[in-house]
Amino acid sequence: MATASPARSRAMNLDEHLPVDHRLSQVYRVGAGLMGLVLVAFGILGLLGHVGFFSLHGERVAGLSSNGALSVLSIVIGALLFVGMVIGRNFASTLNMVLGVLFVLSGFVNLAVLDTKVNFLAFRMPNVLFSFVFGLVLMTFGMYGRVHSNLPHDNPYWRQRNPDQAAREEAARQAAAAQRQQVRRRPAGPTSLRPQQ
Length: 197
Prior knowledge:
Elements: H1 6-12, H2 23-48, E1 59-61, E2 64-66, H3 68-87, H4 89-112, H5 125-143, H6 156-161, H7 163-185
Antiparallel strand pairs: 1-2
Helix pairs in contact: 2-3, 2-4, 2-5, 3-4, 4-5
């Protein structure tokens, strides 16, 4: 029976080292929630315009072009981001990164089909620019505290990638704490009594 590689095992155990209330988890949750709210609001406003589902011309919504298909797709992706916000932790981080990459790719794909008969999402140039910016912001939220060459050593992702050094630093911290506690518990020496005059 095949066993998981050490790298894969570390990746699977990463959630165990990132508590639900960890500040990184909060960043991932806030990012997913805010970006999901933007998409859901955009989708609802688009549906209120009663535009055809695959209308190539669309209708202007908050400065962007939208049709029924884009509105529904925006609501679905926004709801998925809300799920990431609820779950948080590594799931929210990965979801933010994956969707961010997809938004950037969507910008390139829809740029190629502008003013053609296959522009089923009624994209215009502002939509393309929005897709690029939205994707980059979403990727930034997902990569925060994970992708950096100089992560602090108390960062759970750094500790997972450098287990030996993390173990040495943890042992040194525990030894220093034990030494401080031993000094505090050490009884005071006998005090010299000065004779009263």
